[in-house]
Design a protein that fits this description.
The structure is a homodimer. By secondary structure, the first copy, chain A, is of the alpha/beta class. Chain A folds into 2 domains: 17-45 and 82-98 and 373-482, Aspartate Aminotransferase, domain 1 (Alpha-Beta Complex), CATH 3.90.1150; 115-359, Aspartate Aminotransferase, domain 2 (3-Layer(aba) Sandwich). Chain A has helices spanning 7-11, 18-37, 50-54, 67-78, 100-112, 122-138, 152-168, 171-175, 192-200, 221-233, 256-266, 321-328, 361-397, 421-431, 458-476; strands spanning 90-91, 145-149, 182-187, 208-211, 237-244, 269-273, 298-302, 314-318, 401-403, 411-416, 435-441, 444-450. In chain A, strands 2-8-7-6-5-3-4 form a 7-stranded mixed beta sheet, sandwiched between helices. A 5-stranded mixed beta sheet of chain A has the order 1-11-12-10-9. In chain A, helix 9 links the parallel strand 3 and strand 4 (208-211). The longest helix of chain A is centred in the C-terminal third of the chain and has 37 residues, at 361-397. The N and C termini of chain A lie far apart (74 Å). At the A-B interface, helix 1, helix 2, helix 4, helix 5 and helix 6 of A face helix 1, helix 2, helix 4, helix 5 and helix 6 of B.
Chain lengths: 482, 482
Amino acid sequence: MLFADNDRMETTLDPQDWEEFRKQAHRMLDDMIGYVEHVRDRPVWQPIPEETRANFRESLAQRPMSLSRVHEIFMHDVLPYTVGNVHPGFMGWVHGGGTPVGMVAEMLAAGLNANLGGRDQMPIEVEKQVTAWVREIFGFPETASGLFLTGTSMANYVALLVARRAFLGTDVRKKGIRDHRLCAYASRSAHGSIAQAFDLAGMGTDTLKFVPVNEKFEMDVEVLAEMIRKDRESGLSPFFVAATAGTVDTGAIDNLEKIAEIAEAEGLWFHVDGALGALAMLAPEIAPRLNGIELADSIAFDFHKWGQVPYDAGFILVREGELHRSTFAAHEPYLMREGKALAAGSPWPCDFGPDLSRGFRALKTWFTIKVYGAERLGQAISGTCELARYLESRILEEPELELLAPVSLNIVCFGYREGDNAEIAAGIQESGIAAPSTTMVKDKLAIRAAIVNHRTAREDIDALVDAVVAFGNSLSRGENGE
Amino acid sequence: MLFADNDRMETTLDPQDWEEFRKQAHRMLDDMIGYVEHVRDRPVWQPIPEETRANFRESLAQRPMSLSRVHEIFMHDVLPYTVGNVHPGFMGWVHGGGTPVGMVAEMLAAGLNANLGGRDQMPIEVEKQVTAWVREIFGFPETASGLFLTGTSMANYVALLVARRAFLGTDVRKKGIRDHRLCAYASRSAHGSIAQAFDLAGMGTDTLKFVPVNEKFEMDVEVLAEMIRKDRESGLSPFFVAATAGTVDTGAIDNLEKIAEIAEAEGLWFHVDGALGALAMLAPEIAPRLNGIELADSIAFDFHKWGQVPYDAGFILVREGELHRSTFAAHEPYLMREGKALAAGSPWPCDFGPDLSRGFRALKTWFTIKVYGAERLGQAISGTCELARYLESRILEEPELELLAPVSLNIVCFGYREGDNAEIAAGIQESGIAAPSTTMVKDKLAIRAAIVNHRTAREDIDALVDAVVAFGNSLSRGENGE
């Protein structure tokens, strides 16, 4: 006989003993809540011991291992050696802090195991609900479409594809980008993912022209207008401009109203890379600085940064939903739509982006927005900007320190005068006290504090400043033996 | 004074009362474990009541709502109305069933809130560990590189970009695809994401030529060789062939050895789309049918299908890691690498793909492989193929039913003779008994059962067959009043 009577038990991966599993799962949840609750007692970051790293160079095991043992390995070898962005002392790059609410919501999503590619299911209604809120936040019309993606790198790319389809027609999907004389614009301070989008789309990064920035690191809009004029004269076809709402290096916000005006006059697609800054719309005292964002053709941003949703949760909003759909929709027999039952509900999210398998990023975002409400999320955002101003004031008070860029939002670039800032940043990271990152500002290597985490408080700013001064002094006295 | 002394409490999104949060979180975990444990007692799928849908058309709330209330809404309005792929009766499209282990692992990942874009952190070592296992599974060399992505749609696209860079050099990243006479091949049964990749990459879908299939729905390799010859004669540059290990419609496996041989002789990039079938390498009695996969230049597949990892967890494996890296790596000042501390550990995952913000997909995959071991995962895969053969035998026994394609792996295409199979499939879905999908096989609409879930057992197959016969009989007697 081909099948034993007890065939169900032979292949299922469900626990044989649900009670035992349940106990273990609760231990895991307790440990993880404890981690978040007491994260301040830990170093922000610590070096990975070589033997820990070596433990993760095993060959594939054929045999099972108990969940409790695997969890022990996780607690011992993985949890202590993360980047540290849950910790209030983390100010490197631009990482959100996450929340316990996002954590449990993600557990629910993993249990449901929903694929948000399509089909008629409430998880897609949850994504549509979040999309409606996003439209509301940015003052977009009902006909605007939205989609979760991994992050703004993908969202910028999706926006470029929609702009390409708008400019070249749907035929480009069949024929590709040929003999093109297209050109596009972003500021010198734009994120690398804008140029990457042109690489990924087969247009080549040379298609993107960089507009100089003013002393506040904002796009020089007069030069932009001049560049467009000259490029047209030389036979190129300008079609796309990406403004930045919160540049990665300094947090500068381009003049969105003026860029919108130029884009409108010149017939360019107006995209806003708001990875860092767009959600400042939730903070009433910062929102006016984003004036003009409501005129964008597309906006890319991340809920996992200022939105504090756990990684990853990027988002693209497109003004003309139908244009967006016709950039990606295809007709495959195995994805046939029907008027009723499971295959109803067309269009599906897979018609609006490259992903057919898509996790339920919307749930952790929906929980975050429902539980905290827009107001508290906005206060957390304002709070990080206030802390950046506090850090600025502390830097200006310390004679050994210098401010290296204007503080526009929540990012502060500074340094120890005449010091080796790379060495200082690495030393502070290794100390576990704080975790700034570094960048180049006007050919100078700067220590960069991006304050994104809702847990960060004045004491963390003080600890960073004190550490920079102490490490700087110690290095300049040659105590580090370099 | 700008900052109150108790500023920490003003903006943090952490619970004021951790004990209360902890209790609520445990309730949520219990509910979710209960859902998975008792999923068999639920309908596979059920229609969404209009009032439930309407509840998700609220405007953005400014004020908070308690986590327990938001969870209640989730339990009442979302959880009962999913696609149903956790349920053993779900056989639509190709969806994995998930596991409770994957669920709790994802909760840990969300608590850590790791961004796997880069930096020196153990989560990246976990991803490297899984990559090493993947290399081992497919017999790839140490120099091969791997990366988690959302799904195979993205993985196929990444593979195409690496192939493009291999054929055209790194200059293509700057200059784009211009005046190209490239051409590429996949079978008529290939997944739509292969053609989509050519659209996304700016080459246009016309670049992809479809090779006819034989009676087993496998690529006709003699025609492939002939097409390449003719295309070269007409001045085109063939550079890429995508074989399929498990086609979406029928589960057919292309002749990988023969395609590898042709690709080698003709200097083509040999890609395998193994979204559905690649992990059959874990099942010793099926693995030999994938012979030749070890010769691929790149393999794309999903852990969230046969691997039973919760959504989403796609993967790309590339034989030449350095080629892969040089397709994506860039030099940005804010992503500077250092020899020590947080910015060490280069190259980073962001150097191998389009994502800079990347969640910790590796953790749920690592937990799944560690806890179950390769052998049990392979048995679960074998089990679904055995069930497909059982379904085939049941269809052949029923005079009203006809088999519409050979059963190659875990997918069965069949129908009610002279019946409206779309109507039958929708009726069964609405009944909640089972959830097959539909597709076109040789111009005939087929009911398609893709058996992917480790929970599915013979009783679920019997229920599907009985339901198709019953709905078919009832419809042909005109009882449904259509």
